[in-house]
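To illustrate the input format used throughout this study, we show a single complete record. The first block contains the structure-token representation of the backbone; no residue identities are included at this stage. The design step must infer an amino acid for every position from geometry alone.
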């Protein structure tokens, strides 16, 4: 049996041919991008805050946050993503980032108490081993200032099953076996080629995500569903172009955010504990 690839190699290989920024421009991705920005701005401190976008791909969220006046550092394990971000930064009128560099969420190359905010959108579902996820979260805790905020994004445990329903993949025996494994273990391995997704992933239950943040030393503020079931609207790409209908889709996602298990994407908000000196 061929040994499995190191997870970092698998991630780099996947994104060498897959455009993550393009994903955020289709109906599902647009809704995810819109709602994620909406949710994180609820907790952002006043600008200019120091923000690390860890696992931020080519910087879609980084450039958005920089446009709000924050000092943003983009870190991603895929060199191609950083190259694309640098190309984007060179375009006229693009908000400028403080830094763009390759790096691993499990070993964040910044000093203790450096950042006011960390956005971790990606590493937690790429790291299938719990100890790796905890290592990434503990690194985020180390790098944050006391009282700093972590936004941790994860894929929901039931995302694959729900996707299989709307695409009729549940009638495929291989897909059903994969879904059964995901529901039992949270781990996706060897997905069907037609899915064009990464080979290994971890899908969280909201309780798992909360417990991982607490284990890593965070105060868990809340876990929200980014999209609810609003992503199930038929012909979402087409409907999204209608401004009135788009607002109703977003409103529906807001109404369902307190039931995070319904959403294919979770956003957990953690706070680094403040230290108090004894009197």
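Output of the design step:
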């Amino acid at each position: 049996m061929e040994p499995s690839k190191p997870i970092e190699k698998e991630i780099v290989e996947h994104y060498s041919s897959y455009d993550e920024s393009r994903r955020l421009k289709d109906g599902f991705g647009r809704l995810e991008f819109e709602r994620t920005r909406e949710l994180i701005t609820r907790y952002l401190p006043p600008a200019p805050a120091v923000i690390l976008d860890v696992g931020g791909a080519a910087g879609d969220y980084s450039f958005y946050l920089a446009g709000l006046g924050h000092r943003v550092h983009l870190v991603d394990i895929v060199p191609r993503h950083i190259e694309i971000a640098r190309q984007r930064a060179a375009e006229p009128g693009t908000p400028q980032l403080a830094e763009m560099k390759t790096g691993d969420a499990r070993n964040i190359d910044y000093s203790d108490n450096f950042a006011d905010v960390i956005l971790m959108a990606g590493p937690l579902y790429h790291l299938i081993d719990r100890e790796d996820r905890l290592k990434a979260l503990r690194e985020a805790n180390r790098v944050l200032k006391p009282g700093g905020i972590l936004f941790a994004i994860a894929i929901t445990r039931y995302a694959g099953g729900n996707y299989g329903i709307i695409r009729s993949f549940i009638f495929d025996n291989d897909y059903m076996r994969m879904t059964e494994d995901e529901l039992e273990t949270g781990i996706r391995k060897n997905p069907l080629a037609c899915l064009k997704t990464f080979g290994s992933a971890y899908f969280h239950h909201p309780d798992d995500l909360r417990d991982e943040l607490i284990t890593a030393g965070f105060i868990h503020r809340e876990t929200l569903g980014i999209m609810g079931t609003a992503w199930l609207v038929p012909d979402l790409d087409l409907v999204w172009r209608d401004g009135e209908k788009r607002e109703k889709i977003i409103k529906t996602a807001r109404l369902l955010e307190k039931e995070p298990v319904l959403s294919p994407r979770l956003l957990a908000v953690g706070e680094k504990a403040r230290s108090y000196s004894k009197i």
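Structural context for interpreting the output: The chain is about 40% helix and 20% strand. The first helix runs from residue 7 to 15.
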